[in-house]
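FIELD: query
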Amino acid sequence: RSQYRLAWRNMAANTGERTFIPAIIPPGAAHIHGVSSVASPSDPRPLALAAGFASSLLLDFGVRVAPKSTISSTTFARLPLVQIPGLAQAIHLRILRLTCVTSAYKDLWERCFEEDFLSDAWTGGIDYDSRPHLGDVRRNWSREIPLRRSSDRRQAQLEIDALVAVCLGISGGELATIYRTQFPVLFGYDKQRDYFDARGRLVPNAIASRWLTGRASLEELEWTHPESGRVYGLSPPFVTADRDSGLRVAHETFQNHFAPQLANRR
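FIELD: result
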């Protein structure tokens, strides 16, 4: 309990949106047998890389391709993990900006920080006004480190999926095919449920439905946060995001950018 751990739910949702559901938990957190976890005590960077791989569509596919009721440590141990310089750092940046949402992850961020983070950039996504640059980070953790906008978090995960595919030698077309054919619930949500406004925010389903019918007034495009009570004015047009195309673009970008590292591996 004195260290960061990669934890996942043992129960396998083989027909759901996702089956393998991992997350990094901070020091002090405990869990019962319904969750399993692993650690990298001396160096957190392998843990960050493992978290990136574990969050990917390809490793999720590796779990759900042989349906079981539980995801044991044996199942986890057989999943692939490849460390290629450059690509590993790119995965680190994205999974850490997704994970380090509070000061509980301050030490994880600062121990994993690398100067290469500063030169990294998005491969796509919703390019709204004042969108943060992916590499606009600092060594010291602050509230600006985690990605908080829904479209940015989605894009970061999509780019992790593409990076893992490049590491494993899976083509962009093969990755997109696995997404379309093996994750039908996620595919359906991308096409029919999840809409984003012009500022990259996820639109509540009720508001999206009213807007799609053409009967939404400006007042009906406002959403009140259930806890803070803050009112957000959503900015149309509302659009879905094409994950298929995004995966292919990200894969091609990374394949070209990291070609020297991939050639050395071969």
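FIELD: remark
The longest strand covers residues 5-9.
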